Predict the 3D structure of the following.
Amino acid sequence: MTMSPIQQADQFFVTSQHRFVSYLPAEFQSLTSAILSVIAIVLVFALLFAITTVLERKGLGRIQNRYGPNRVGPAGFFQPLADGVKSLTKEDLVPRTADQMVHFLAPVLLVTAAFLAYAVLPVGRNMVLVNLNAGILYFFAVGSLVELAVFMAGWSSRNKYSLLGGMRAIAQMISYEVPLVLASVVVIMAAGSLSTVSIVDMQASYTGIWPHWFVFTPWGFAGFILFMIAATAESNRSPFDLPEGESEIIAGYYIEYSGFKFALFFLGEYLGMFATSGLAITLFLGGWAAPFSFLTWIPSYLWFFAKLLLLIVIFIWIRGTLPRLRMDQLMSFAWQFMLPMTLFNLFVAGVWHFMPSGIVRWLVCIALLVAPAILLSRSLKQGKKFAVRHYRFAE
Amino acid sequence: MTVTFLILAALTLAGTVAAMAMRNLIHCVLALTLGFAGLAALYLLLGAQFVGFTQILVYVGAVAILAVFVIMMTQSAIPAMQSIFSSFWVAGSVVAAAVFAVLAWAICRSGFASQVLPPVEAAVHPIGDALMHGYVLPLEIMGLLLTAAMIGAVVLAMHEKRRTP
Amino acid sequence: MSTATEPVRILPQSPANSGSDSGEGQLLEVSMGPQHPSTHGVFRMDVVLDGERVVRLKPVFGYLHRNHEKIAEHETYLGSMPYTDRLDYICSLTNNWAYALAVEKLAGIQVPERAEYIRIITAEMTRFLNHAALIGFLTQDMGASGTPLMYAFRERETILDLFESLTGARMMCNYMRFGGCRVDLPAGWLDQAKKFAATLPRFLEEFERLLATNEILMARTQGVGVLSKEFAVNAGVTGPVLRASGVNYDVRKVDKYGIYDRFAFKVPLGEHGDTYDRYMIRLLEMRESLKILNQALRDIPEGPIVDPKTKIRGFKPKPGEAYGRIEAPKGELGFYLISDGTANPYRYRVRSSCMMNLTVLEDLCIGHNVADVVVILGSIDIVMGEVDR
Amino acid sequence: MFGEGILKGLAETARNFLGSYVSKKRLTTVQYPEQRLPQIEAYRNFPFLVYDGDDWQQGLRCVSCFICEKECPPKCIIIEKSTDKKPDAVGKLQFYPKVFNIDVSVCMSCQICVEVCPFDAIKMDTDFELSSTDRFSGLLWDKKHLAKSNEHYHKIHPTEAAAVDAQLAAERAKIAAKTKATAEAKPATPTPPANANGAGPNAANQPVPTATEK
């Protein structure tokens, strides 16, 4: 079995892992290979977390016409190191009245759950820790552990703000988990599989130079947008960062955490963001597949991380622009817009499946999506009569 | 395999026993969550991926959260210091015994599988087939029940809102 | 929302009826502040929450009390001037002006024309920077991660540079004097100011594009914290907050103090009296300020900058009393002085716009969410230096 | 309708993001220790005492009249008058401050001492890098710490200092003319010329040597 240099580059990590493992006795091989993959995932995504914190701070800085961190290391890129040292050396304060055990377990559970989700994300061709048949289900299952961790943090701190933050976080996460799952169901319908690997494989083919990504269908595009909105809410990012709500409830559920535990919360939050973005890439943006057929020579894992970075940039951009929603608005947005839209999207995906391909199918599906979107957004606004106002002037 | 099973079974049992024995209601729910998770792991051990993950998604992700939410809404967050034995303990144990009897009867009647079945793939098609063909009536009944419960909750909430303008 | 149109204060509840019996669930008492990121200084609110809804709110202030009025009674008239900088420390020049106006009324001092123009230029710049910074803070309170705030501060920086080259300090200007201003404009200052004023319309457009039609901002502010016309008047609210409720009251138009009658400008009025109106009124007032600024920069004459008859040392006005007020960026700022003929005022009183506006906070907040409380507080625009004095 | 304002805002932030890389006007931050803004002439920070000539004790313009101490709003100036006299900037015999302390932790840089000083003796400095590790004596500046030369004053506030110098020169000329006139009228006045020659208080005022010895 010979591979072209392109394939070699693409499969570099896979083959080197195989080679390393093959030196070991047979009974250790599968275990070692799993451990190696886990270490790789932990290292790579922790590094990505570090890079993202710098990128976010510098990007936000530039959006706000500032420099951002530029003192530690070249152009400030060693800032995460300094932050890490700081958080490690800080005193670990636990409130006297806190529920010590739960208070300690919450960040651990959060980070564990966040890391667990990466097990089913195919970051490259043949590069997935486990190819579960129910991969997406697994993803959402471990994702639901995050809610529990957040609740534990908010409740065990015995702080009114953290309690409010915890309540907000749970309400928000439960509400947005429904549209998140429903938005990904369209892909499961189209792919006929719950396995992330086979979903990516389905998208990794081309017509001419154009890829078969699900985002290039009406339901896929709508699903992607809905999924990303729900993912933003799930990962507590602006404009859905109510559980932290810095200006309202200060830091929300992790107000009573300091030092390394605080850093763990930070880490868990970003890991959750990467994971949901990774799932969005897997489901809608063709996973590790190249965007054009003539770009397939670039290794697949690079494509995955490029797409991930793109989504992170969009997250940062949105954070730099938008104010935060209010709790009731968040809820009504989830239940009055997101949920019906995802259900409509399911219907549209069915229509797409059963209609003969052609321009008519496109038009019908787009119409079926745009009409309810307009109607729903209007109904969302109508109760409150939001409008750009005109003012009178007195001389 | 047996070792894994034993560990998981011990974990599950420990979680559920702790859920009964702990004083703080939130701790009880958290311990129960551990039990749920252990149960899910047991399902996975049996190769039932779909059931296992659904167990986590539904029980850990939704039921446990709902339980703590209800506790937080109805009770103060301060641990209750009263006795863990309810005054209805007789009735409670009767109900528990009855549930146990029914479950035991059902399990014993089904007969233990003597041969190991090939692991079923958690593919979408067979699950969909099963739900839409074989078990369509139970599914519909469940859906109806949940809808009724939801409508009931909405009605209750609306009533509440009208009462306190 | 009905609380604002019908301002009825909820009576303090006894512990017996504030419990969970009313079907409202448990009430949660949260002390927001004095170390809270969005209380705009050391301000505390005792908030009683039902879930996230505000049932009661008690503003607690005094953490920044500095005994300003009493100290002023032991200072010379001039000695109080630098202390007025520290009232509303964002707009020190308008504070200076209000105090100078009061003393000028008390002692019957005339102000030369050039000084009046300089006062108007600096005051309108101050209004501009205050409103820009306020909108930044307000959106910050809504969670906009500081972007509008940074844009506002970028412009504010330029204004502060102008202030620095004129007065020597960026914030604590201590610039106005009885009968004029302390120093004349340095060479080239007017050109710099004109150049800067020419860039401001672009900034305003950018600012409006950034947020004014943002759906989230509209959802967060429209219908939130409605202050009715009657209630606003009864509560003694002034400034943009009052005008956002639709009351046409601007001291610049009513008193025509200084030489404001020479300038063509309009007073924007709101209709709903909600947070969005308060936000928009400030945006529009910035445009009007810019108009005044351009006219003043165009028309400023040459001449002396201070009345030569006023004494710096040994200033003793005749016995009497006077109340000088101006339209400060935050509302009507007045100084009431009684002189007994000595070098110190017998009584010195500040009519603080921030504090009077803050009194309506509870009525605006009840029934809204915690998240709305900080936004309403932000839209009232307080500076604790002036509230506590 | 829905989303339009959000998109507008996103476009605006993107413009600012890119603009911060090309336009200096957008990225106004000054990288402080490496970069410094040009000093603004009008800038003021804390007061200092001006002295003429080279000897800071000799040339101190302050005549210890207590006006600034009285007028200082936060009362941060502490003056003790000397018992002997020395000639001031215009050549008149005056008292001088034995102690002149400013508590800069109290001072609020209001410049009122400068405005009320009839002798142009106290002016505002522009130095702002003043951190001290000792918050008590490190922030109580004495006469020695406060005394800065007239050249320094010329450096930081050139126009203002030139005006002050001109005024002082005029006064000096006036006084010189007056003393000349009085000297012609009454030839037997011994002290002014002796002091004006610059022998200093040490030489001229034997009775109280302690005042200037330290």
Remarks:
- The radius of gyration of chain A is 23 Å.
- Chain A is about 65% helix and 0% strand.
